[in-house]
Amino acid sequence: MKRIITILSVAAAAALLAPSCSKGLLELENPNSLSSSTAYTYETDLDAALVGVYHAFNGGFFNAGMSIIFGSQSDEGYSYSPAMDLVDFVSFKYPNYDQNWNVTQWKCLYNQIARCNQVITYIDNVEEWKEFSKEQILGQAKAIRAWDYYMLAMLYQHPPYVDYIAPAGDQPAQTPYETLCEKVIEDAKYAYDNLPSDYQSGPWKGQYRVTKWFAATLLGRVNMNSGNYAEAAKWFKDVIDNGKSVGGEKLALVDDYLWNSDDSHENNKEAVFELQFAKGNANAGYFAAYGWGWNDGATPDHRNWRWKLMCPSPVGWGDFCAETWLVYAFKNEKTVRDTPRTKAGQFDQRLECSLFYLDIWKDYPGHAQWQWVDGYEEKVDAGELEAPGWYSNGSYWTGDRVFTNKYTNWYGGDYNVKIADNEPTNVRIFRLGEILMDYAECLAQTGDLKGAVNQIDIVRARAGLAKLSEREPVPAVWTNPLTDEVIDFNKDYGYAAIKSGSYTLADVMNVLDIEDMKETCYDSERNVNLRRWGVGDTSSAFYKRVAARSSKYKNQFAPHKVWIPIPQSEVKNNPNLDQIEGY
User: Fold this and answer.
1) How far is 271 from 425, CA to CA, in rounded Å?
2) Ramachandran sector of residue 393 (left: φ over 0; alpha: ψ -120 to 50; beta: rest)
3) pLDDT in tens, 268-287
4) What one-character-per-residue DSSP string does 446-504 give?
5) Per-residue model confidence as pLDDT tens digits over 517-544
6) Quick check: 136 and 129 in contact, CB under 8 A?
7) What does the alpha-carbon distance between residue 512 and residue 223 come to, in Å, rounded to a whole number?
């Protein structure tokens, strides 16, 4: 079940649809077309403005680009796109800082921030509050603004901080990373103190909006990426011990890992927050919203477009591929107990759910891969992948080519993805499986190595894997043809030390590098993790491991490229904004 917030008419500004099992819509006019503060007089005006904040999640950064920026620009992916600017963008080449993806993500984030600022600035115009809570409207706006600035900080190091209604021609000053993180913490703390645990009652009953647990998770993330591991651990533990899902359940791992990326188990007990998507409304603008429009009309498109870029042709565009090393890392052991998707003795179920590769039928007998073939959607057999028609932008399938399965409806049965390019699956932003891995890292960094291993084991148990202390490795040695490096995904990554019971922080972090990937593959933030773990130090052992498995880190990476260049047009037009040093 999901609730999509759409904006249609100002007369409906105070009306919320009653919750149902359908993907219901809240129909309101876009409040951001109002230009005067006098428009914000009643509490319903502010609620409508808040709907405009959520409406911005339909933009191209959120419905496609976010996953690619944080995933494909890490060691998880690369591009075979015929659009060379995309290839360059995810390969650290950056010949054009105004590349469309880069400009769009900057604008999408600041667009949503501007909407948050409207709510925050004009909320005191309302003198009487009856139906809505002033503090909860303000808390939602501050929580979303905090998340936007968190992403800007993680991508661009020192973007401007704007907490006012910016006039035309405004030239805000850049904000140091540390200061920006403090601003994120300030907003997120307000949200934590004032937002409810869920929306099972009150004026937003049945809607999936940001909660105090969204704010708590964000507080954990921003502190972790500021080096404040003890403070981050406190927030993550609060979420783990006390948090509720977007649907109001006590947070817990779901039984089947697939439920974290399919369209039948959305807003489940593992989810802290999801971006709500739905089947398309045949809006002609669809993906043109990414960079050539805002998907911001009266009837915006609610489809999730990341799948189109990730799926191999002919069902998708095949622009982005997953790195081959991911498959070998997943296959460094087998399960010891049954799971909803696998039997004991098979490979980790998360591999099947995350990646699409040539041997998937051999590794998972009975695997069903639904793709678009010969004019209709059907279940694909292994032999078809090497036949004409199975290609990625002109290149026939090769044995080491890997694509993503996550969020692509590969399991999907008979509903037709291709006809209307429909993919309604929600993107999970914060969920318990990821939070447990973050908590494990914080425990390790604050000296509790045993506690860190215990948290990793909790996540591994859902996948049917043994405890790290009891783990039996499966040979997983790969020679990267692009770097000529031989990589052993058991011996090179600290597993033996943990099994022996005598291990160091370095051993735990080496294991976490692989275990975190298995749980969060293409769930975003991988590039942020790599920066935190030290990939920017090109003399470090960690950088050398990353460069061995991912050729773009060996050939194109430099320390300043842990950040993305600020769009050059922004720097050129704002004398108070400097480009990131090194670009």
Assistant:
1) 14
2) left
3) 999 999 998 877 654 434 45
4) TT-HHHHHHHHHHHHHHTTPPPGGG--B---EEE-TTT--EEETTGGGTHHHHHHT---
5) 999 999 879 999 999 999 999 999 999 9
6) no
7) 19
Q: Is the peptide bond before 314 cis (omega within 30 degrees of 0)?
A: yes
Residue 326 has pLDDT above 90, yes or no: yes
Q: How many whole angstroms separate alpha carbon 313 and alpha carbon 316?
A: 5
- Name which of 297, 270, 271 is nearest 284 in CA terms: 297
Q: How many residues does the chain have?
A: 583
Q: How confident is the model at residue 190 (pLDDT cuts 50, 70, 90)?
A: very high
**108 near 59, Cβ under 8 Å?**
yes
Distances in whole angstroms, Cα of residue 404 to Cα of each of 280, 309, 360:
22, 10, 12
What does 178-231 look like in DSSP terms, one character per residue?
A: HHHHHHHHHHHHHHHHHS-S--SSSTTTT-----HHHHHHHHHHHHHTTT-HHH
Torsion of CA 433, 434, 440, 441, to 10 degrees: 170
Question: Do the Cβ atoms of 560 and 538 come closer than 8 Å?
Answer: no
- How does DSSP classify residue 124? G
Q: pLDDT over 70 for what percent of the chain?
A: 82
Residues 6+ apart with CB under 8 A from 362: 382
Number of neighbours of residue 4 by Cβ within 10 angstroms = 21
pTM: 0.91
Mean pLDDT of 441-459: 98
459, 299 contact by CB (below 8 A): no
331 vs 4: which has the higher pLDDT: 331
Average the pLDDT over each of 255-259, 364-368, 574-578 and give the range with the smallest value.
364-368
What whole-number distance in Å separates Cα of residue 371 and Cα of residue 159?
41
Indicate whether 27 pLDDT > 50: no
**Predicted confidence (pLDDT) at residue 22 exceeds the cutoff of 90:** no
- Helices 541-549 + 505-520 axis angle, to 10: 30
User: Among 404, 319, 311, 399, which residue's Cα sits nearest to residue 355?
Assistant: 404
Is the separation of the CB atoms in 356 and 368 below 8 Å? no
> Which amino acid is it at 56?
A
The whole-angstrom separation of Cα 6 and Cα 30 is 9
Nearest to 335 by CA among 347, 351, 352, 326: 347
Distances (CA, A) of 190 to 137, 194, 233, 339, 522: 11, 6, 19, 40, 30
pLDDT of amino acid 412: 67
Strand 486-488 to 477-479 pairing: antiparallel
Indicate whether 150 pLDDT > 60.
yes
Q: Write the single-letter amino acid at 19.
A: P
Amino acid at 434: E
Distance CA 535, CA 545 (A): 9
Q: Tell how far CA 499 is from the center of its chain.
A: 32
Place of tokens 């880069």: 102
H-helix or E-strand containing 507?
helix 505-520
